[in-house]
Design brief:
The protein is an alpha+beta fold. The protein contains 15 helices and 20 strands. The protein has helices spanning 29-78, 85-98, 110-121, 154-157, 179-186, 240-253, 271-279, 326-336, 400-409, 411-418, 424-437, 442-455, 468-479, 482-488, 492-507; strands spanning 3-4, 106-108, 123-126, 129-132, 144-149, 165-169, 172-173, 193-200, 204-211, 213-216, 220-225, 228-233, 258-262, 286-291, 299-302, 315-319, 341-344, 352-359, 362-372, 388-389. Strands 1, 2, 14, 15, 18 and 19 form a six-stranded mixed sheet that branches. Strands 4, 5, 6, 7, 8 and 9 form a six-stranded antiparallel sheet that branches. It has a six-stranded mixed sheet with strand order 11-12-13-16-17-20, sandwiched between helices. A hairpin with a 2-residue loop joins strand 6 (165-169) and strand 7 (172-173). Helix 7 packs parallel to helix 8 (326-336), helix 10 (411-418) packs across helix 12 and helix 11 (424-437) crosses helix 12 (442-455). The longest helix is centred in the N-terminal third of the chain and has 50 residues, at 29-78.
Length: 508
């Protein structure tokens, strides 16, 4: 979720482009004067029409507003029972914002307004899932999608994965719900239960009951992996920048010679925080440009030129489908500026900025701009491709009915609950036992058991045994020529142009 409570000022003002040199015209002076006169006459002739059109548009807007007010008053006076005016107000606001067809522009009742404030400040009562909502090509809303999970939360421990669909919440379909409405239903008093129906892929569907807890939104985890600093950003809050500085200071004192910036499953946060984090790695230059509807409102955000991580320290950025919004701003800036090599999977693709506007105890959130990377690319919907794609091993084809039966039996959960410190051999033996009961590959069963074990303990800072993307990042920094790789890496603009050329070639 990308939004800002107040529009941030640009770090520096963009420099105006120099005017093009004027070339001496070979045309006769009389011709030029005649042309100027004709242009002035045309402008004078068109002015009344343009003014009339503007007046007509203004009048039309005023008429709509007046009609809405008339209907509002009529309902209050004539509806068969007395109606709370607040109910009419919230209904009108909800309908008006929903008509935009933008899942990120929504009305925020009092509870949802408070939820946004709590999330931004760093704690709330809930399950620890980031959710998103999209619309089908025909305009109908789709089910709720799990975009990312907050580590060490009930949702993270429940077995839900990024990309899963939440079909129902406490028996209510999520199709007609906005992401904010769904988030409100998932949140609640710590200790209470919420039951969701999960759909994974085309055929796997199973219920999950989650006990709500106080969710403390973490921002940064870090550690040294030999001589490499590992910095994992889980979200972008007001605390993220200072926590990142603390981590980098520890890397410096440990004599680090490379850095891995992990933005996987980081679903975003505050625009200012993303810009300030980028500033830790960039010596001046563009971080991101935001472009609203009016071109005069474009803002270019520049790094201040006091990077904590010097240019000679190579950087790998890890991204995946759960990397969205603010994390894509950082990844896009470091990629386009040639400061980092991206490894993993294509990111989520949320290239817009939202503003929250309070209205007493309620408010609304609306998309006010799209953001563009330093090479002037907007990644909305398409996402950011990594320089080197590294995918986790695909789950083999499974018997959906058998997997549904296993998940709903709770046998894996019961095994780990009884043996929380189960070693590799114990997991293999149990996997073979399940293989005899269900038509499922033993290798997949071992993975499911290991994932359940990890979820029952505090999430490790990193896991070199199973994390193939992190393994690849370390391999690049320790065994390959980083500088040669960076010289071959392309900006997002270059990749976009190549895609367009390929599309033209295919069409012709």
């Amino acid at each position: 979720m990308e939004y800002q409570n107040t529009p941030p000022e640009p770090i520096d003002k963009p420099v105006d482009k120099p005017e093009k040199l004027r070339k001496k015209s070979p045309l006769p002076a009389v011709y030029l004067i005649t042309t100027v006169i004709l242009c002035i006459a045309l402008a004078v002739a068109l002015a009344p029409a343009v003014y009339a059109q503007a007046r007509a548009e203004q009048t039309s807007s005023s008429q709509y507003a007046s009609t809405i007010r008339t209907v509002f008053d009529f309902i209050q006076r004539n509806y068969v029972v007395e109606v709370d005016p607040n109910q009419l107000f919230e209904g009108a606001m909800t309908g008006m914002l929903n008509s935009l067809g933008d899942p990120y522009s929504v009305f925020l009742p009092e509870t949802e307004m408070k939820d946004i404030t709590d999330t931004t400040q760093g704690s709330f009562g809930g399950v620890g899932l980031y959710v998103s909502k999209s619309y089908r090509p025909d305009g109908r809303p789709s089910f709720l999608e799990v975009a990312s999970l907050i580590e060490d939360t009930p949702g993270w421990r429940s077995g839900i994965n990024p990309g899963d669909l939440i079909v129902e919440i406490n028996g209510e379909s999520t199709e007609p719900l906005s992401s904010e409405e769904a988030a409100t239903r998932l949140r609640g008093q710590p200790g209470t239960e919420v039951r969701v129906l999960i759909r994974r892929g085309e055929t796997i569907e199973f219920p999950v009951t989650i006990v709500r807890a106080v969710i403390e939104v973490p921002t940064v985890k870090h550690a040294m992996i030999k001589n490499i600093g590992y910095l994992k950003l889980l979200t972008f809050t007001p605390m993220t920048v200072e926590r990142s500085r603390d981590a980098i200071r520890e890397f410096q004192s440990s004599g680090y010679n490379g850095l891995i910036l992990d933005l996987r499953n980081n679903y975003g946060g505050l625009l200012n925080s993303a810009i300030d984090v980028s500033n830790l790695f960039l010596e001046g230059g563009v971080v991101v440009t935001t472009k609203p509807r009016q071109e005069s409102g474009n803002q270019v955000y520049l790094a201040r030129g006091n990077a904590m991580v010097p240019a000679e320290i190579p950087i790998i950025v890890l991204i995946n489908r759960g990397s969205a919004s603010a994390s894509e701003i950082v990844a896009g800036a470091l990629k386009d500026r040639g400061r980092a090599y991206l490894v993993g999977e294509k990111s989520y693709g949320k290239g817009s900025v939202q503003q929250v506007y309070p209205l007493d105890n309620v408010g609304f959130k609306i998309t006010i701009a799209r953001y563009y990377t330093p090479s002037n690319v907007n990644i909305d919907i398409v996402g950011i491709p990594p320089d080197r794609e590294v995918l986790f091993p695909e789950i083999p084809e499974v018997n959906a009915a058998a997997l549904n039966s296993l998940i709903n039996s709770g046998k894996i959960t019961d095994f780990i609950r009884a043996s929380p410190e189960a070693d590799t051999r114990s997991i293999e033996v149990f996997a073979e036992q399940l293989h005899g009961e269900y038509d499922i590959e033993a290798s997949l069963l071992k993975t499911l058991i290991q994932e359940e074990k990890n979820r029952r303990t505090s999430a490790p800072v990193y896991d070199l045994d199973y994390d193939v993307q992190l393994q690849e990042a370390i391999k690049i920094l320790t065994e390959e020529n980083y500088q040669i790789l960076m010289r071959s890496a392309k900006t997002l603009k270059e990749l976009q142009e190549e895609t367009m050329q390929d599309g033209f070639a295919l069409a012709s």
